[in-house]
Write a structure and sequence with these properties.
Arc Repressor Mutant, subunit A, DNA-binding, 4 strands, globular
DNA sequence: ATTCTGACAGCAA
DNA sequence: TTTGCTGCCAGAA
């Protein structure tokens, strides 16, 4: 777990937060997509790490809109309540079934394509 | 300094 | 097709 140091080394982290904040309402993206957008295509795990410490970042970060490439809510357990993430997504019009996002392909928002 | 782990992803058996 | 091992990078013990 990351400490509270945080410093200004958040280069990678801040970018993750930025992209995450740019995710449109009702859309979602994947860790890998963000990682690739940031350059390090194979550091998808770091994206999750960044989101794990997103509490250190001011403002609201729609981390619930970031799921793994299968559309699976792998991080729902990190939202305090295991159902929080699912509810947030459902609140945005997304349908979750068995911790998986339906129509993931349609709702998928790729920063590489959308932002470029 | 060394080792382990993690909200992933990709390829091998 | 499903399961499992490895690669990635950063941070904690």
């Amino acid at each position: 777990m990351p400490s509270l140091k945080q410093k200004e080394n958040n280069d990678f982290f801040e970018r993750v937060y930025e992209v995450t904040k740019l995710i449109p309402y009702g859309r979602i993206t994947s860790y890998g997509a963000i990682a690739r957008f940031l350059g390090s295509g194979r550091s998808a795990r770091m994206v999750g790490w960044a989101l794990n410490v997103c509490h250190n970042n001011p403002g609201f970060i729609p981390a619930h809109r970031v799921v793994n490439r299968k559309g699976l809510l792998t991080g729902k357990h990190h939202f305090g309540n295991s159902t929080t993430m699912e509810q947030l997504l459902g609140n945005e019009g997304l349908v979750i079934e068995d911790d998986k996002i339906l129509n993931f392909n349609e709702k998928f928002w790729d920063p590489l394509t959308e932002l470029k």
